Amino acid sequence: MVLGAAGGGIHQLFDLFLNGVILGAIYVLLALGLNVILGLIGVINFAHAAFYMLGAYLTLSFAPHIGFLPAVAAAAVVVGVLGMAMEVSVIRPLYRRIPEHALLLTFGLTLVAEQAVRWHWGDYAKNFDPPSFLSGGFSPGGFTFPAYRLFIVAATAVVVAAVWLLLNRTSLGLVIRAGVLDAEMVGALGINVPLTFTLTFGLGSLLAGLGGAMVGPVAGLNPDMANSIIILAFVVVVIGGLGSFWGSIVGGLLVGIFRSVLVYWWSPATELVPFLLMAGLLLVRPRGLFGVEGVFE
Amino acid sequence: MKRPLYKHPLVFFGIALYVFPYLVVALGKSTFNASEFLVWAIFATGLNLLWGHTGDLSFGHGMFFGWGAYTAGLVSRHVAFVPLDLAAAAVVAMAVAWPLAKIIVRRATGIYFAMITLAVGEMFYFIAIRLTSITGGENGLGDIRLGHLFWIDLTSRVNFFYLSAWVTFIAVACAWFITHSPYGRVCRAIQQNRARVPFLGFDTVRYRERAFVMSAGICGVAGGLAAFLFRHVAADTLRWTNTGAAVLITMLGGVQSFFGPAAGAVVVKFLESTLIPKTPYWPAVIGAIFAAFVLLAPGGLAGLATQARALLRRRAEATPPAPPVAPALESTG
Amino acid sequence: MEDQPGLTRREALKRAGVLAGVVVAGGGLSACGIGLEDEASAGSGGSKKKAPVLLGIVDPYSGAYAASGASQTQGAELAVAELNEAGGILGGRRIEIRKRDDATKPDVGARGARELIGQENVDVIVGVVSSGVGLAVSEACSQLGCPLVLSGTHDDTITGVSAHKTTFRVTTESIMIARVVVGPLMKATGKRWFFITADYAYGLGAEKAMIAELTKAGGSVVAAEHTPLGTTDFSAQLTKARGSGATTVVLVLYGADLIAASKQFNEFGLNGKLGLGGHLNGLEMAVGIGPDRVHGIFGTPWNADIATPASKKFVGDIKRRTGQTANFRHYLGYLAAREALQGIDRAGTTEANAWVKAMEGHHFDTLKENQGYWRDWDHQAIHDPLAIEAIPKAEWAFENEYFKTIARADGDKVAPTRAENPAGAARIHNEKVVARAAYTPKEA
Description:
Chain B has helices at 9-26, 31-50, 62-78, 82-107, 110-130, 132-135, 157-179, 182-192, 204-230, 240-253, 260-275, 282-296, 300-317; strands at residues 148-149, 152-153. Chain B is mostly helical.
């Protein structure tokens, strides 16, 4: 189980590391979306994964008509709007109740969403090729990295930066951050809290939709996508810390890198890695790497 | 105000169990289905011990169902005595639950607790599908044989049902005595207002831990029974999707009631088996009904029943001023 | 919610005892169930004048193998249509189909089989793609005494250590495929192989068979990575393969997994640098990967470029009915249904024991050059597996050809011998067919 293998151990490790960053990018987007909603509103949106799946399928449908990149943007926006619609119609009445109810409702809606996708787009896994201008590859030192995957990393970095700017340099962001700490007080200051909640829900959903929109060409699409990704999203959020911005990023990257690199040494562990990380963290630092004290404790 | 024994809810429950298969068959299903409904009734009741009665929603209790199922299946290869196999299932489930409770309960509550338990269940799933020599991996554990229980041939569906009925009765009775004991009342208090209970001098963590373990035991029994019913254990039982089904059932039945989850199990599984041949999109129907209940009737069917009873009682009491002409027009309930 | 004070332990125990006594008095196990039948009633009793023969199909319509399941069912439906047009079987009875989705999950499949048998009263079941599901369904059918012809489950254990007397399997099993693929793949790409395998019955069994053939021929295994069914990202495994010094990447995968791995193999620029091959491949995957992007050498029980008249007719029929070029899943579904139903016809009854006897040893038309037959000691269909190679679109002779046949093996030579499969022989020999409860067999 040592670093030796036919053909350059360190080199391969670097490749795997880079691959892990690529894997992690999608987790980051998902976790960020969940955390934005969780941090401010205190609600776990189980349908987050369904939004991810919808983002992927909508991109598939839009792309032949308006081109790939516009399709990604459009899909993300549509999902964001859907999220806002959902918030206004069925989540809002649940704010007075314990947060588990929102979790349960969105769980039920996920079941419906999955079947809707199956009904509209069919049961089979769908093929989705990256656009031709992104289908080459870079080969630093012999191993080819698909250009598309690098695009995902770049796009994620841009989006994460945009979200940071939103949270830290705009008045909406100020309201959100204040709301995380004390939503009641924010309302008392005359700010339209329900609108803020709705917009935040939209933002979180948009991030999920964007993640899904970009992941289609990498992994293919199938109606089971939501089920498989939801756990990872949860685990990353737990590892990074509930409601934490930096937690989403560090947690997502950590999980991606560990998964990729561990294949090298001990492949049966790859699926277990996220859970082992989570378990370890739970024992040592229950609130997650960047968790805020008092939140959900 | 001591209630006479023959009016004890468990007696009614026992009678209902005896009559149950006739009802199921009359409605077009089979005795096999009836046993299946009972498995889920046990599962839901076990889950609710932790959820409705103690206030912790675990999204991972399917793992104990799975642990129980595997245990029962594996033990039955060596000791072909079903009650013992089921007891082993319960014991193993509780043994696994104990360290988990110790780690998780103290550190998490609410939806955080739900997320972590969900993840732990998934972790066990990934472990189980790797341990192919023990669990059969992705194929699952097959070839589970049902022999005889003393002189009774368990391969007969009818006999198996009555075995299930007994197991259900015992499991539900255990749950009953737990919830109606002093211990159970403290758990109830925790469910209603966790912050306040320590001021009464109780260590909420210890009570929650024990509830976690005991509910795991009951879920384990459900899993064990399922192993004998289906003669096959799939690793999928450990996944959150399995717990999700139980959560859905429990909520639909009524989280705040005792028999609600069991009733919910029968209703949902019955609905499911009716829908499956009709449409491949049946989970959407169940999901939509569930979402509607969460939104509009969070008390579940039991809650609706209580409301209906209250409504009827109010109607009966609030007799409208009877027009002297036609007393027969008085509203009846 | 009661207002009475909580129970003391003694009270509780006393009540429990009394309650238990009450219920025991109410009905002991042996006195129960008066009036309940053991299964759902057989429904149409004897009143029917030539009730239809009911064919049950358990196939995946969702999950990783959904596309294959749909194809298998279409094949079966073609067989049923042909037989019905020819006047039906068992004395002119029509054949009707009842379906269940197995969702590529063993427990769902087994439950579907039980429902088909217990509630829909089917006379025989065909189908299944995933070997894991196949094992569970085979078990269920055996316990309930229902005839079963598995169309597409390749794992050797199905006619080996988990064989059942009521189970027959149509497709050329994993070891047969391995024996036809390994030679050509070694010749074309090299001797050091890197396996990426689906971690369940089929994948592990196929990998084992291929490794055995590889080492016999002087090759070596560089690594064998196991991925769970439903994996979508193989980047880590492919990265590892790249630096491993292997000559060939061998994808022992199927369905959506195979599509993802194949695409990512291209994406990572491995095409041309490493050889590619696998165990099984078929059109339903190739179409998902895309023309000119499918590469490598694989195995299959049948390919659309077979030139026999029967095969051409079959391809034409499938094209007409579904608009698709036939893939080997269509073929397997067709063969399974046709054989299962003709077996009933030959036996003159749907009773399981008679059906088994009518099946064992029977020779049949495989649509290929050589006939096949049902081997009596393991219930495996013996016919010729093929090795196929992906060809670029420019070389296609017809729409969606994707693969051309490059080798064929004699079924008898590559099928496991009695010495290689003693468990299967013993199980089938010793097992007694269970009498099916609450069921009246249909007669000619």
